[in-house]
Amino acid sequence: MPTFKPPNLQNKIIIQITDTHLMDHPETEFVHINPEQNFHAVVDDILQRFSHIDAIVHTGDLAQIANPGTYARYQTYMQKLGIPFFQIPGNHDDLALFPFHTPNPTPTVIELGEWSVILLNSAVSGQTDGYIQTEQLQQLKQILEQHINKNIILACHHHPFAMKSHWIDQHQLKNTEEFIQILENFNHIKAVIYGHVHQDSTYIWNGIQFLSSPATCVQFKPFSHDFALDDMAPGYRYLHLKENGEFETKVFRLKNFSQKIMQEISGY
Fold first, then answer.
1. pTM of the model
2. How far apart, in whole angstroms, are the C-alpha atoms of residue 33 and residue 262?
């Protein structure tokens, strides 16, 4: 397997993982798969491919069974990698237990040379839909103004624009209009990355790339009116952030991967 190296130390490499849906015990299965094994297999693939990583960003639904033990196990595992890692919650996470990096709803800012990655919380307790609180949007505007000389990537859990899958689009970010009203006032925002949809997609709005990533657990079938699982392998997104403000991105999936998914479920 080839190892990807950044051309120089001024360029930055970040990896997006998402939707691990970890259970309360590592051996527990979910829809006939083991989320823990899938997650560890994805991380192993990341470590084999990349000799240097500046940050790993988890874009939500860290836990399917959201209890203190699940979050502690995840943090212990990630700490052993020796790579800076960050996470934001999804609709399956428990906001009261989630390991935020800054007090919720204050956005977390990751400084990476000429780049800044801003982590937003779009999860709402007790709801599947996404919503970014007004206070957080106001703070985002201030951060964007303060970081006007940086290249910006934003991260949240919920998808701002429709995926053309009726069932999942009922649970997208509900205040996208307010969100993009802030974004349209700035020209240094390069991308918005998110999870929730369990699939790879690209949507361009106002010159900004909106990018979703495959889940580390099961995948959702694209363009599906009703809930449907896909047989694609788990994966993650690689982003190569260049000093000149450009970036390259690619989705990687596990090779020679097979799993028997419980296709008959109607959603989760």
1. 0.94
2. 8
Listed in order, strand segments (DSSP E) in 113-176 are 115-119, 151-155
**182, 137 Cβ separation under 8 angstroms:** yes
Per-residue pLDDT tens digits of the chain, which is 268 residues long? 544 444 456 799 999 999 999 999 999 998 889 999 999 999 999 999 999 999 999 999 999 999 999 999 999 999 999 999 999 999 999 999 999 999 999 999 999 999 999 999 999 999 999 999 999 999 999 999 999 999 999 999 999 999 999 999 999 999 999 999 999 999 999 999 999 999 999 999 999 999 999 999 999 999 999 999 999 999 999 999 999 999 999 999 999 887 666 555 545 5
- Nearest Cα neighbor of 261 from 34, 45, 44, 17 is 34
Taking a C-beta distance cutoff of 8 angstroms, is the pair 194, 155 a contact?
yes
Residues in the chain, overall count = 268
3-state secondary structure 2-35: CCECCCCCCCEEEEEECCCCECCCCCCCECCECH
The DSSP output letter for 216 is S
